[in-house]
Amino acid sequence: MKSILDIIKPIRLTVGHSSDPSKGSCVMDVVSYINGDRDVTDHPECACPVITAFAIRINDRLADADRQKLLGYVTRIAGSRAGRDITVQRALMCAQFAKRQAAIADFVKCHAAADRATLAANSADRLADAGSAAADTADYSAARLGDADVAKYFAARAADADAHAHAASAALYAAGSGPADVHYVAAVMAHLEDMLQLTDAAPVDAPMIARAEQLVLVNASKVTA
């Protein structure tokens, strides 16, 4: 039996959201479609809001050839929705990612990335202030990231609504803006992989495979029409 990744290879990801796959699809539209959502959306409920925000930004920022690499992540993104602890952890990973990008940018005297790192860290800080104390998540962050400054942000759990809002903000700031060079492409793909490793891959079932095959046919119609 073919895998979903084999099936969707012909699809070309495009910039921006479209509820009509025949007019192009961003990576999150594809996730929504194969998940079986009644209305195709770039913010499907099956996906983590942190990963959604990050994936949308890098989908639109990457060059066309690099954008297609995101197809390899669709089934895992479709299964990435998790509890608030993992949502907060991913948001803080984004804050840490932004800090690393800022350090590189500072070396070449680019202040825009440093500003993004500050905004990402502030979003993560508000996340930590939104809920009750949870020392176990602080311990997790220290072990996972090895960064005491970032670890302190994990000392609290956030209410779901606040977690999603601030987590998405941290992810957007981490993804940045402007031209993407080869080093950026490698960095964002590695960061996406790190976030996805915090959850199990989505199960690939027969209905999902059928929807992937249907999406390929619909997507191809814009080429043959």
How would you explain this protein's 3D organization?
With 225 residues, the protein is mainly alpha-helical. It contains 12 helices and no strands. Helix 2 packs across helix 12 and helix 6 packs parallel to helix 10. The protein is globular.
Key terms:
globular; single chain; about 220 residues; about 65% helix; mainly alpha
Roughly how many Å is the radius of gyration? 18 Å
What is the average of the pLDDT values? 73
- SSE topology string: HHHHHHHHHHHH
Structure annotation, total helices: 12
The assigned structural class equals: mainly alpha
**Helix content percent band:** 55-70%
Number of domains: 1
Coarse morphology: globular
Kindly summarize this structure in a few lines.
The chain has 225 residues and is mainly α.
